[in-house]
Amino acid sequence: MSHDDSAYEHLADAHDEHGQWAFGTGIEDVALEIAAPVPDGADGADLAEYCLMLGDDALAYGHRLSEWVANAPELEEEVALANTALDLIGQARVLLSRAAHLGAGEDEDDLAYQRSEGQYRNVALAELTDGGDFGHAIARMLIFSSWRLALLQRLVDSTDPVLAAVAAKGVKEVAYHRDYAARWTLRLGDGTDESHARMQAALETVWPYVEELYRVSDVEKRLIEVKVAADPATTRAEVDIVLDEVLPLATLTRPDRPAVGTIGGRGGRQGVHTEQLGHMLAEMQSLARQHPGAKW
Amino acid sequence: MSAREIAGAVLDPEMPMLTLADLGVLRDVTEDGEHVTVTITPTYSGCPAVAEMRADLRRTLAEAGYRDVEVRTVLSPAWSTDWITDAGRRALAEHGIAPPGAAPSGPITLTLASPSTVVRCPNCGSPTTEETSRFGPTACTALRRCTSCREPFEHMKEL
């Protein structure tokens, strides 16, 4: 086969001067907007940290969703979960690129593959393993999507052009994820005795991690002041509206379980995670760490 | 041919019945002396086809003699299926993919059942079709089935 006929050469060509494929794509070009100046009144380091929070939520949860590929109960659901993962990882790429541009790291890949768990800023709900339980996947998606949709709807008006652009696109995507989860919640909750019991059990399992979604970190407080960030505390009502509509229709009950506490006030936003994130990163990062800067 | 005409005729890698211009992802093409700047926008945040579009644009323009080409990606304003041209909609239907209706606007409400909008079967034209999966083989399509001719088909989702 001549040089020009190589399929791999063709793929490498897709990524411009970097000649890289898989991890290590043409990163600085992910979007023109990532080089925009920091909005007036905001601190660049704060903004980078905030982009990591929203980006890590999407990356960690996107990776968990991708674990369903080849493991979902039906092909259609596998495609649905993979597409949902793709949307979220797309959001993460832009947000991590913005964080890198603001000095948090070299580039999106450096941030995704070279940070340890203590440097991740996602909420715990994003990192939990589904443990192969489709009910768990649906319970988490219902809550996560309802919450993220409410956040993104606020961020459409962010003074940061990257957050506003990610939000404008993400709102449509995440609304679709939420609908998917809500329909499956109905089908499983109001299905057989077995599916009902497992869906209720899944809700009980994720419930202790819901309260963290509404906590406001110091970084967020400062960025809310200057209209860069969205206030997560204000999203509770919108999540509750969804749950109050869907759960009774699904014959499920809203769990009554205490929230997982913080460690000295520190949670996912400050880098304190469940043990599940480390296991996830070990798998997600192993290839990139074994072959730093690899090209193929 | 101008750089704009060449760039506009490049095909979408996932739906090659559409040109990038028909799909509405080609935002701008400017020529400044030898330098050509092409601006595109992704359909979905994680659309894996963007890298291929960039490569195809570079390669096609290079073959036409444009060697100094920069391809930029912009996110805002966000792409919508309303940007697909009429020619693009016809091409989709001719290739068995039901084109999208008008993109939704206004407040986002929870939809617990498939919307009742009529999606015509691209094979027999029947208006009685049903959704089988909200997610199809690419991020932008859903799967449907015609209840008249029984053929399954893809529907480009309104976004």
Structure write-up:
The complex is a heterodimer of chains A (296) and B (159). Chain A is an all-alpha fold. Chain A has a single domain, classed as Ferritin, core subunit, four-helix bundle (Ferritin). Chain A has helices spanning 7-13, 44-66, 75-101, 108-114, 124-127, 134-155, 161-189, 193-206, 218-225, 236-249, 275-290. The mean pLDDT of chain B is 92. The two termini of chain B are 33 Å apart. Chain B is built from four helices and seven strands; from the N terminus they run H-H-E-E-H-E-H-E-E-E-E. Chain B is elongated. The longest helix of chain B is centred in the middle third of the chain and has 15 residues, at 49-63. In chain B, strands 4-7-6-5 form a four-stranded mixed beta sheet. With 159 residues, chain B is an alpha/beta fold. The interface between A and B is large, with 51 and 37 residues.
Q: Under the CATH scheme, which architecture of the largest domain in chain B would be assigned?
A: 2-Layer Sandwich
- Helix content class of chain B: 10-25%
Number of domains of chain A: 1
Say what oligomer this is: heterodimer
Contiguous helical run count of chain A: 11
Shape by Cα distribution of chain B: elongated
How large is the radius of gyration of chain A? 19 Å
Helix and strand topology:
The complex is a heterodimer of chains A (296) and B (159).
Chain A (H helix, E strand, L loop, with lengths): L6 H7 L30 H23 L8 H27 L6 H7 L9 H4 L6 H22 L5 H29 L3 H14 L11 H8 L10 H14 L25 H16 L6
Helix pairs in contact in A: 2-3, 2-9, 3-4, 3-7, 6-7, 6-8, 6-10, 7-8
Chain B lengths: L2 H6 L11 H4 L2 E7 L2 E6 L8 H15 L4 E6 L12 H9 L2 E2 L30 E5 L7 E6 L5 E5 L3
Parallel strand pairs in B: 2-3, 4-7
Antiparallel strand pairs in B: 1-2, 5-6, 6-7
